[in-house]
Amino acid sequence: MAKKKRLKIALIGYGAISQTLFDLFREKKPPIDIVGVLVRPGRGKETQKKVGSKVAVVKTLKALLKLKPDIVVEAASQEAVREFGEEILDKGIDLMVIATGAYGDAKLWKKHVAAAARSGARLHLPSGAIAGLDGLLAMRLGKIEHVKYTSIKPPHAWSGTPAETEFDLGAIKERTTIFRGSPADAGRLYPKNANLAVTVALCGAGLKRTEIELVADPTLPPGTNASQLEVVSDSGELKLDRLGRAMPDNPKTGVLTAQSMAESLIRLTRASDW
């Protein structure tokens, strides 16, 4: 029997998400090898110490692609998606994107899908810190009448965003809506907080027919964030409430985000979906 090929992945960025992927793969030991990490100038030595000598730490996309990964995993930012996405896909290499807020720009989304179609690569969009997207994808085969996604985080998780200038975040004592609008605007204005707004839109009713609400809620249990998904379609209704742990070093991101990425990658190595 032929030995099954191990999946070679390369990471863009080395923050909380990438660190969690390293930890999960060490613990679960799937047939996956992280062959390289692309980091910003000045972070090479620090990152190399953390990942060990067997993983290449590089400064350019060209150097990352020389490692011949099967899939490149973006774990950095919307800027990284815009800067590197098309080139990766054009070279026939699969790309996983978690900063999906970049695709609030419909032209960029179409450009990346077209690049994947030309080269035979695949663009992977993990579910991130939410559940129920499989149901939403199925519902869009019929008629979707309404989709609303609500992201709920403690007030301090919205620091460094437009909410900080519009609200006194430290003085918020009850659940407060800080944004209501389109997925594209949510992803653009809150690039580190609201990528899921665009993911939900792309999975369901589209960028123009999805309602987004961002909420600061000081009553959440410490160290958590939450979300709500409401869908009405001709096949039924979906209502989902999620309460999850935030990453200890990054209250803007849920632990489930990295876990969903890891599960999506591990699934590529399995003989079945589960």
Automatic annotation (TrEMBL):
Keyword NAD: yes
Start and end residues of each Aspartate dehydrogenase domain: 172-261
BP term (GO), one: NAD+ biosynthetic process
Binding site for NAD(+): A129, N195
Pfam families linked: Asp_DH_C (PF01958), NAD_binding_3 (PF03447)
GO molecular function per UniProt: aspartate dehydrogenase [NAD(P)+] activity; NAD binding; NADP binding; oxidoreductase activity, acting on the CH-NH2 group of donors, NAD or NADP as acceptor
Entry keyword set: NAD, NADP, Oxidoreductase, Pyridine nucleotide biosynthesis
Keyword Lipid biosynthesis: no
Any coiled-coil regions, as ranges: none
Pathway(s) the chain acts in: Cofactor biosynthesis; NAD(+) biosynthesis; iminoaspartate from L-aspartate (dehydrogenase route): step 1/1
EC number: 1.4.1.21
Catalytic activity field: L-aspartate + NAD(+) + H2O = oxaloacetate + NH4(+) + NADH + H(+); L-aspartate + NADP(+) + H2O = oxaloacetate + NH4(+) + NADPH + H(+)
Domain Aspartate/homoserine dehydrogenase NAD-binding per the UniProt entry, residue ranges: 13-126
Family: Belongs to the L-aspartate dehydrogenase family.
NCBIfam families cross-referenced by the UniProt entry: PRK13303.1-3 (NF009828)
Miscellaneous comment text of the record: The iminoaspartate product is unstable in aqueous solution and can decompose to oxaloacetate and ammonia.
Biological role: Specifically catalyzes the NAD or NADP-dependent dehydrogenation of L-aspartate to iminoaspartate.
Protein name: L-aspartate dehydrogenase
Species of the source: Enhydrobacter aerosaccus
Name of the coding gene: nadX
